[in-house]
Design goal:
alpha/beta, 6 strands, globular, 7 helices, about 30% helix
């Protein structure tokens, strides 16, 4: 994958980065809605900023670079973890790696149990690696959504790669009913934390790296963009 990037001139530039630029670019769905929400701001969308303000080390964090569809390589297979948005930010307490998972009504794809069906040695190695990155003990419940596991791990992996002092994973949901929040709550519970819409839960990943998990309710006007 090329490491050369060009500035965005608007939401349409995000479309070309999708796995299927036609199918995945529809009004009212996450990819398009997320692009319009982030392009509308010079920095973080307000609901993302409100989450960050809840932790003293993240209060004065500003984005340095914002990358749509950021791919993070993982062992045990060819497919990377493709973050809807990844942000390298900086504040008074150093650099921050922020992974964003955009949602409207789409589910978090397969559970770990479904993903492990006919598990190959590569899948087993990848799962072991993800749990190690997040500082979690194997096994975790099969009902946990695999997508949340590798998205949170992406934030940690990139924090380690860029020498960041904090990792953050946020679900940026535009669902009026916060559809699939229960899955996120179950994931946060793996760390002994309680999730709530609009609240940041703080824990630690491997080597004691601070990891923050949050669910931000996005501005629903972007559903019609």
């Amino acid at each position: 994958m090329s490491r050369i990037f060009v500035p965005s001139s608007g939401p349409g530039d995000w479309q070309a980065l999708l796995a299927d630029p036609v199918k995945h670019w529809a009004r009212g769905y996450s990819a398009r809605t997320l692009a319009h929400s982030w392009e509308d701001q010079d920095g973080f969308p307000p609901e993302i900023q409100r989450l960050l303000l809840q932790h003293s080390a993240l209060v004065k964090v500003d984005p340095l670079l914002i990358f749509p569809e950021w791919k993070v390589p993982l062992p045990g297979g060819l497919r990377p973890s493709q973050n809807d948005v990844w942000v390298l930010a900086k504040g008074d307490h150093g650099l921050v790696s922020i992974a964003i998972e955009g949602k409207v009504e789409e589910p978090f794809d397969k559970t770990i149990g479904e993903w492990k069906l006919d598990a190959s040695p590569g899948k087993e190695a990848r799962l072991k690696y993800l749990l190690d990155v997040l500082g979690l003990q194997d096994p975790v419940p099969d009902s946990v959504r695999y997508q949340l596991l590798h998205r949170a791990a992406s934030a940690v992996i990139e924090a380690e790669r860029f020498g960041a002092d904090h990792a953050v994973m946020i679900v940026h949901s535009f669902s009026p009913a916060n559809q699939w929040f229960a899955d996120f709550s179950d994931f946060v519970a793996l760390f002994g934390q309680t999730a709530a819409v609009g609240q940041l839960a703080s824990t630690q990943a491997r080597r004691g790296l601070p990891l923050h998990l949050g669910w931000a309710h996005g501005d629903e006007r972007f559903l019609a963009a």
